[in-house]
Amino acid sequence: MSTLPTIAILGAGSMGGAILSGLLAPSVTVTGGIRVTNRTEAKAAALRTPGVTSIALERAPEGNLEAVRDARVVLVGVKPAMVSDLLREIAPALAPGAIVVSVAAGVTTATMEAIVPGAVLRAMPNTPAVVGRGVTGLSAGSRSTADDLAIARAVFETVGEVLEIDESRIDALSTISGSGPAYVFYLIEQLTATAVGMGFTEAEAATMVNGTFLGAAELLAASGEKPAELRRRVTSPKGTTERAIAELEAADLRAVFDRATAAALARARELAAG
Ligand SMILES: NC(=O)C1=CN([C@@H]2O[C@H](COP(=O)(O)OP(=O)(O)OC[C@H]3O[C@@H](n4cnc5c(N)ncnc54)[C@H](OP(=O)(O)O)[C@@H]3O)[C@@H](O)[C@H]2O)C=CC1
Ligand SMILES: O=C(O)[C@@H]1CCC=N1
């Protein structure tokens, strides 16, 4: 059970919407309720549910100001390029003691602290938050107190695990766990294409590949073993898997991931520069 203070989510798209789903769990009480804003009515309408005031800015241009007025936590879920403008818009309406928590990639607390008067934190969640299996990196800003950090932590714990880290490491974390679900889905797509290429139907391929990823992930979680040990148990000496793994090693997947995460990190730095 967790009890949270009034929350506004400005920009409840993929990520903001995922966090909203956590806050709506029966085990969570948000005292004073949840306000969410989006630009379009279509999106706002889909989020209207008891306990949630969902505002479409195309109908209520002052909606962000209305949403933050009595909020203790203001979650910023818009695209990185929009964060500064949004903060300039809401700064005069923020309640005393309100904390701003941004999930935007790259945008630093220093940038945000230059705009809003109070405490600012950064979070980097991921989309498995939708099913309560998110991993969120959380970093304090220079003005946030231990109490602010504890409240922000409690918000993200409604959707999974939280890792408190220094802000200097949050962009790196983003390249692993923030973007990570996309890497996993990409691997699933590639292995599925291979299966289809071998003559399996799409449905058969999906059963095999999705089931294998889910089963392997659950085995990893349930066994408490290291992935290398679980891999060893699949790889019979002189068997078939050994040949397949040798091909993957020859392709140097580790180097590919090094390059991919370096590219994501460079992009985070570009987003920080605005
Ligand atoms: N997707 C992910 O896996 C992750 C994303 N993030 C971060 O989350 C943020 C949002 O990304 P994502 O959820 O993917 O993007 P989405 O486009 O899905 O969500 C952005 C939302 O913001 C709304 N919006 C646009 N302008 C405003 C405004 N002025 N005020 C309030 N709401 C507005 C949009 O509404 P409408 O559609 O109606 O225009 C949309 O629903 C980004 O900063 C990203 O870096 C962080 C971690 C992971
Ligand atoms: O792709 C992005 O920029 C965001 C941040 C991490 C995951 N999605």
From TrEMBL:
User: A single GO CC term, please?
Assistant: cytoplasm
Catalysed reactions, semicolon-separated: L-proline + NAD(+) = (S)-1-pyrroline-5-carboxylate + NADH + 2 H(+); L-proline + NADP(+) = (S)-1-pyrroline-5-carboxylate + NADPH + 2 H(+)
**Keyword Cytoplasm tagged:** yes
Gene name, please?
proC
Query: Does this entry carry the keyword Transport?
Result: no
Sites binding NADPH sit at N64
Q: What is its main location?
A: cytoplasm
The record's section on HAMAP family has: P5C_reductase
Q: Which residues form the Pyrroline-5-carboxylate reductase catalytic N-terminal domain?
A: 6-106
| Pathway(s) annotated for this protein in UniProt | Amino-acid biosynthesis; L-proline biosynthesis; L-proline from L-glutamate 5-semialdehyde: step 1/1
Spell out the Pfam families in the cross-references.
F420_oxidored, P5CR_dimer
Organism per entry: Lacisediminihabitans profunda
State a single Gene Ontology molecular function: pyrroline-5-carboxylate reductase activity
Signal sequence, renumbered to the chain: none
Which stretches make up the Pyrroline-5-carboxylate reductase dimerisation domain?
167-271
Name recorded for this polypeptide:
Pyrroline-5-carboxylate reductase
Q: What does this protein do?
A: Catalyzes the reduction of 1-pyrroline-5-carboxylate (PCA) to L-proline.
Annotated NADP(+) binding lies at: L10, G11, A12, G13, S14, M15
Q: Which GO terms describe its biological process?
A: L-proline biosynthetic process
Query: Family assignment?
Result: Belongs to the pyrroline-5-carboxylate reductase family.
EC number of this enzyme:
1.5.1.2
UniProtKB keywords: Amino-acid biosynthesis, Cytoplasm, NADP, Oxidoreductase, Proline biosynthesis
**Localized where?**
Cytoplasm
- Write down the InterPro entries for this protein, in alphabetical order: 6-PGluconate_DH-like_C_sf, NAD(P)-bd_dom_sf, P5C_Rdtase_cat_N, P5CR-like_CS, P5CR_dimer, Pyrroline-COOH_reductase
